[in-house]
Amino acid sequence: MNREDYDRYAAAFNARDYDAVFDFYAENPQMAFFGIEIRTREQLREFYSFLHKYVRETVTVEKFASSPELVAVEGLIRLEGIKDLTREELDSRGMQQFFPVTAGEVQEMRQYIHYHMKDGKIASVGCAIVP
């Protein structure tokens, strides 16, 4: 995956085109972040459809490096609350590691994301947030 490919991936994510996002993934991907595991197209759609009812999330890529086996991204994740997302709602979805967001609130965080590649597709994803 080169930078042009990744820009298309990020644009699909920012546009909430979950099917286009999942098309970048290998069969049976392993996505695990902040206590959430996603392995299917439907799980990806369900997770982000829920989250994006409450927040407008955008990814801005600041640094990018790639090889045939790994894509590494450093970027800014911006969450803008569009509807109150409460602690209770998060907990009921098993999202204890996520923070509540109120309508109008903006949270920005630096995130490091590693995509392990297999045959040009994303096989697994790992990420970390820097406070």
Structure, described:
With 131 residues, the chain is of the alpha+beta class. The protein has a single domain (3-130), classed as Roll (Nuclear Transport Factor 2, Chain: A). Helix content is 28%, strand content 45%. A 6-stranded mixed beta sheet has the order 2-1-6-5-4-3. The longest helix is centred in the middle third of the chain and has 14 residues, at 41-54. The protein is globular and about 40 Å long.
Keyphrases for this structure?
SnoaL-like, NTF2-like_dom_sf, 131 residues, alpha+beta, Nuclear Transport Factor 2, Chain: A, 4 helices, 6 strands
What is shown here, in short?
The chain is α+β, with helices and mostly antiparallel strands and about 130 residues long. It has a single domain, classed as Nuclear Transport Factor 2, Chain: A. The chain has four helices and six strands; from the N terminus they run ααββαββαββ.
Order of helices and strands: HHEEHEEHEE
Could you tell me the radius of gyration in angstroms?
14 Å
Principal-axis shape: globular
> What's the mean pLDDT score?
91
Structural class: alpha+beta
Which topology does CATH recognise? Nuclear Transport Factor 2, Chain: A
Low-confidence stretches: none
Strand content: over 45%
CATH top level assignment: Alpha Beta
Q: How many domains, in number, for the residues?
A: 1
What is the first-to-last residue Cα distance? 28 Å
Task: Draw up the topology in text.
Blueprint: H1 3-14, H2 18-22, E1 25-33, E2 36-38, H3 41-54, E3 55-66, E4 70-81, H4 87-92, E5 106-118, E6 121-130
Parallel strand pairs: 1-6
Antiparallel strand pairs: 1-2, 3-4, 4-5, 5-6
